[in-house]
Amino acid sequence: MDEYLNVGKTYLVTGGAGFIGANFVKYMLEKYADIKLVVLDKLTYAGNLGTIREELKDSRISFVKGDICNRELVENIFMQHDIDYVVNFAAESHVDRSIENPQIFLETNILGTQNLMEVAKNFWTIGKDSNGYPIYKEGKKFHHVSTDEVYGSLSKDFDIPKELILDEAVRKIATGRKNLQTYGEKMFTESTPLDPRSPYSASKTASDMIVMSYGETYKFPFNITRCSNNYGPYHFPEKLIPLIIKNILAGKKLPVYGKGDNVRDWLYVMDHCKGIDMVISKVEAHEIYNIGGFNEEQNINIVKLTIDTIARIMKEEPKYQSVLSTDLSNINYDLITYVQDRLGHDSRYAIDPTKIVTELGWYPETPFTEGIEKTIRWYLDNQEWVAEVTTGDYQGYYDKIYKER
């Protein structure tokens, strides 16, 4: 594949101290020598400068603490930096939190996104065409990172998964992925109607539609990617996989909603970052792409695989037993406890990434069994990070790390 056309580009990465945003920052700095990144993050519970501690020492990166809803702050960033690409990761994202407090999700995910676009539109506009539409500086684009949850819920048609048969064009590219499975007849495509079911997914759907409306009304240059469930290093330990890892090591019960039979499609975070990079760099404006993992699995099986993998690592490599707060013999399925199901819990998500595979040559390279072991080993090797983010000392991290620069 040709080298991406991003030499000398400046990116505004919102939410760049959060899980996916931080991994994107790491990916981009490692891959490209001649780029600049401006990271904007509010540093709430899920944003932590410890996640990009080493990256902040790099002269190619600047950090701004603040809210994407703050018009003056965002305008100041555009005045100080010639921003080529806005990559919008900033969002309230935990469904359970959205059920408890919907309003903050609407403010950040909808109004914050609109604020970013309005500022970008104003700074990128250099005139009007004969029909009154804005004319933008060349090479500018707003990339909005969305979620498969905007599509709603798919039916779970099979209790025992069936083989997932890929299209011939996809098989030719995704040669490294074998033994794929599915729990249903249908998958989400880019043409699937938007049908959100929670305050979180409704706020993301609204932000998607605001982005698309700017494309129609102002011919604003944008792309949207919609991803399946991400997992990997630096994931805040309230989401399923990092929470399960943390609780297993502590010998605590593992809460599983309902019967644990809800199905999710899991995407290793660095595979996602690669897909975002390709869409930003190689795709014309106004295109939307699904980025999925070909990794459908029931939640209960995810929990059991995590237990099995940790138990095996502990037995094969006793050095890791020092991180246990329980006896090794206690790491078994007895830790699983079933709790009342989440309100409006979607049955199944499954993304069809055929468009990005066939048009851009991207595919999810990481099988789940490989990705989950890499993720577990990262958490075993980074217990200090887990302990510090769990205590919520975000301001302390900000003061300590930012002042080191």
From TrEMBL:
InterPro entries: dTDP_Gluc_deHydtase, Epimerase_deHydtase, NAD(P)-bd_dom_sf
UniProt xrefs under CDD domains: dTDP_GD_SDR_e
Transmembrane feature ranges: none
Gene3D superfamilies: NAD(P)-binding Rossmann-like Domain (3.40.50.720), UDP-galactose 4-epimerase, domain 1 (3.90.25.10)
Source organism, top-level taxon: Bacteria
Positions of the NAD-dependent epimerase/dehydratase domain: 12-292
Similarity section: Belongs to the NAD(P)-dependent epimerase/dehydratase family.
UniProt name for this protein: dTDP-glucose 4,6-dehydratase
